[in-house]
Amino acid sequence: MIKETARGMAVHMLTRVETQGAYANLLLQKNIIRLTDSRDRQFVTLLVNGTLKHRLTLDYALRLHLSKPMSSLPHEVRAILRIGAFQLLYVDKVPSAVAVNESVELAKAYPKFTGLVNGVLRKVMDKAWDFPWPDVKRETVRYLSVRYSHPEWMIQRWLKRWGVEETGALCRANDEPAHTWIRTNTLKISREELMDRLTQEGVTVEPGTRIPESMRIQHFGAIDRLGSFQEGLFTVQDESSQLVAHIVAPKPGQRVLDACSAPGGKTTHLAQMMQDEGEIQAFDIHEQKLELINQSAQRLGITIIHPQLGDARDLPGVKLGSQQRVLVDAPCSGLGVLRRRADLRWQKEEKDLKGLPLLQLAILERAASCVEVGGDLIYSTCTIEPEENFELVKTFRSTHPEFEPVNLVEDLPFDLEDPRDIQQASKGMLQLLPHRHNMDGFFLAKFRRTSQ
Ligand SMILES: C[S@@+](CC[C@H](N)C(=O)[O-])C[C@H]1O[C@@H](n2cnc3c(N)ncnc32)[C@H](O)[C@@H]1O
């Protein structure tokens, strides 16, 4: 039995991710609170997320010194080797000898493999980054895949679009640790007051420079146990996600439809911007997720959201031309948020992308029919793949001359610097990319209905 130290806990969680397909972020949320020292909680988070993200590179390094396949080792031993190699290759603050010795300690729960763990990790320590990498010119895809730990199919897609340099930059951005962002509940408190309150609660805070209500926090306890959270003074939401409500730009008193709304991050933001006046119909196809919207709304003191169970391709009960703002935050491949979701890159397969554009277009078509003349339709995804974004919007526009693009520059709460972005945004579209914008990869498009 492995001891419940920070490293032991990381091994346990990594094993559950591999054997049961558990979600790393949920496991972390649930388990790290058992560790009393916040530095331990921080360390486990680093180990689990880092080891998951860099798995391909770590296995490449380990395999160079293993005489048998990784797959022949017990799952726990694989996890011990991986977190050991992760510390040796990526975590400067852990001395190499400590990384090896602590891994050997963990491996004592598997006595047959203690010698193997010791031997292999010592070799990784001696060689460090001196690997025989695949040749970058002849085996570009394999090189980038192994060097930056991404599936080959993703690399192939991005190479065609962006070439070697930029694909490498994107992969490096995805491999960075993700920051935690929160959104001030401006219905209850100002950002400055919330910053003071959080500081008193021991949270490190830094105001965001792009979104007026955002801030970046560092806290390795359970966020939902903070008094400020329980009082509904903020919501955890990534910065790119916070941008969406600013582009929707709803006004108090309006009729708003959120077609794919659960768990309600953007819905509650819309309600905030509307001063909790008006009406938001919040659809989602998953009943259990709708309850999360109710819980958030209650905590945040929001009353205007009406969660509705339903397929956004039908939007049962919603009349044609009845809404002043309609948001489609579509189900998507999520390839823009690989930095945030450490295990996502290994959960996705290229075939998963196939059916998405059809679903997204069907949702957008029905949602568009609900927009009144003069009202706005906003489409957003957290992906960087053109068929779910630019190409989808192009297809939609080719059959909907009654919708005109809306210049996004006026709604954006920050200035765009890249001329390519300014040009796109003036035509109603914006693709945020982790390596260019240092934000999650998000796509936004806005149209106004000009006639029936
Ligand atoms: C990107 S998430 C939405 C996130 C949400 N807007 C937020 O900010 O918290 C997409 C949502 O679409 C929902 N969904 C998937 N297919 C759907 C459909 N056909 N109709 C309605 N909702 C759907 C999923 O359950 C998921 O909650």
UniProtKB/TrEMBL annotation:
Q: Which Gene3D superfamilies match?
A: NusB-like, Sun protein, domain 3, Vaccinia Virus protein VP39
Q: Where in the cell is it found?
A: Cytoplasm
Functional note = Specifically methylates the cytosine at position 967 (m5C967) of 16S rRNA.
Q: Quickly give the catalysed reaction.
A: cytidine(967) in 16S rRNA + S-adenosyl-L-methionine = 5-methylcytidine(967) in 16S rRNA + S-adenosyl-L-homocysteine + H(+)
EC number(s) recorded for this UniProt protein: 2.1.1.176
Cellular component terms per the entry's GO annotation: cytoplasm
Q: What is the lineage of its organism?
A: Bacteria, Bacillati, Bacillota, Clostridia, Eubacteriales
GO biological process per UniProt: regulation of DNA-templated transcription
What this protein is called in its record is 16S rRNA (cytosine(967)-C(5))-methyltransferase
This chain's source organism reads Desulfosporosinus fructosivorans
